Amino acid sequence: MNYNKTQQLLEKLFSNRSFILSIWFLLAVIATLKQLKAGEEHNNYLIFKYTFFHAKDHLNLYLKYPAEYGDMNHYGPLFSLVIAPFTLFPKYVGMFLWQIVNVVTLYYAISTLPLKNSKIVAVYWIITNELLSSLFSFQINPSITAIIILSYTMIERKNNFFAAFLIFLGTYIKLYGIVGLAFFFFVKNKPKFIAYCIFWAVLFFILPMFFFSPDYIIQCYKDWSVSLSAKQLENATLVSWQDVSIMGIFRRTLQDPSIPNWPFLLGGIILFCLPYVRLGQYKSNSFRMMYLASTLIFTVVFSNSSESQTYIIAFTGVAIWFMIQQRPLKTEIIGLFIFAILLTTMAPTDFIPKYIRDNYIMRYSLKALPCALIWLYLSYQMLVTDFKSKRIETELEI
């Protein structure tokens, strides 16, 4: 009797969204304190913060400043305004607030998914470890994940103005946001949506010019383009911490950094777009949700700028894909999901022996492999499944 009561209490607790949010807050605090104790691991936040200071002083945003931080900034000029409010606080306070904003943004975005509460709760728990990995590096990727999800859910809710706002906010920050246009075909009023996109694209382009000089911002956009091109070449090397992608798997397995991105991207884009021809499936909630999952995974596994911490984006797509599968689950779906848990989200942890982690998973970009396989399987499902069939039980809330 006591065992049953305890089990019921635990189930109720772990299904409570407020409890999950408190756990995420706690993880943000733990990650921040741990990195502060390490002394130099908050390098990403320093890059973000100095983006605003450098813009204010009209300095090149895309040069190395070794006296201030390691590595380089690769975010758009608009990001200098996004990070500006955090610079008003002492560094440690700003760091905590940055982590909390990322957590809350992602938490809210997932809550807007058209899924039953039990499935939303499951998505929260599935991605928690990947979220922690991102928090340790003070990355903006949780918010980028949220922007992509909200672009979809706002289109679902016919809030095209806010959807366009999010798509171009994400684009002018990190380019990844542009993938929100993948949901264009699900927009009800396309002419109005296009007008909103043009409005926000122009506004976000010129907005930094009101705070800094137009000539300076125009030069920043040119410098940003050069920076991203150089980064693509740098990431393709066999020793980069990035290139955790499908291309990276091939380059590093074959030990050939000259293997180009374009054949993979071309094939990926064709396969990504093929389900669009199934016009009759657009009315299906599950079909559209599959496109959301596909977009989240595609964005990461086909980018040679992806690193381990970027996988909060892809793994959220994996979680959504898994939760909208028809029950009972097929053996291959269970197998792919377990494979993803073990090799993707557990890869940076002590669950995987350090020797295997360093010499195999990191060396050959194997963290990308389960997500890539799931994306291929998901693409196959989108091409052959009749999502409108009454036999398909999506368990989605309408």
TrEMBL record:
Gene Ontology CC terms, in alphabetical order: plasma membrane
Topology versus the membrane: Multi-pass membrane protein
Transmembrane residue ranges: 18-36, 92-110, 131-155, 161-186, 193-212, 262-279, 308-324, 333-352, 364-383
Subcellular location: Cell membrane
Primary localization: membrane
Source organism of this protein record: Pedobacter nutrimenti
InterPro entries documented for this protein: GT87
GO molecular function: hexosyltransferase activity
One Pfam short name: GT87
Assigned keywords, A-Z: Cell membrane, Membrane, Transferase, Transmembrane, Transmembrane helix
Family classification: Belongs to the glycosyltransferase 87 family.
Annotated protein name in UniProt: Uncharacterized protein DUF2029
